[in-house]
Amino acid sequence: MRRSSAWMAAAALAGLPSMAMASGGVRLGHSEPPTVPYLCSDGGTASVVYRGGSDFGHAQALVTHDGRTLDLRAAPTLYGVRYRGEAEGGSLLAWSLRGEEAVLSEAPEADSYTRAERELLRCIRVRGASSGPEPHRSASH
Questions:
Q1: Does any domain span residue 63?
Q2: Rounded CA gap, 121 and 5, in Å?
Q3: Rounded to an integer, what distance in angstroms lies between the CA atom of residue 71 and that of residue 51?
Q4: Residue 125 pairs with which residues in a beta bridge?
Q5: Which of 75, 97, 106, 111 is most open to solvent, judged by the fewest CB atoms within 10 Å of its CB?
Q6: Is residue 21 in a domain?
Q7: What is the pLDDT of residues 54-79, one digit of tens each?
Q8: Does the residue 26 lie in any domain?
Q9: What distance in Å separates the CA atoms of residue 104 and residue 102, rounded to the nearest whole number?
Q10: pLDDT at 60
Q11: pLDDT by residue (tens digit) across 4-27?
């Protein structure tokens, strides 16, 4: 009896990987984060892929608007979520999130007090068009 019980247990364990795969419980490889759509103040749309999740050192936003894509990195902020990077031509840009609203702005160096940020675009997230993980959240809410 012991022998048949051990055999049944081994057979059940051997079948687990295929059962897990069939049920969708185990995913192999990494999938691309979802694209988050926004409707913007210029009448156009923006689509953003947020990568790196809550890993601040690796968090990134790929913002696509008007045929251009900006590769922005997480930056410290007092409220909300913020990504900064350099656009073609060398201007510094920021994509700042507060709730469902996002703002793309020219963002001078952090230690520059002579130039204020200039808003370029204001966007609102379109819900229901994509689902997935939320962008990186700052710990200083």
A1: yes
A2: 67
A3: 11
A4: 38
A5: 111
A6: no
A7: 788 889 999 999 999 999 999 988 88
A8: no
A9: 7
A10: 96
A11: 444 333 333 333 333 333 334 444
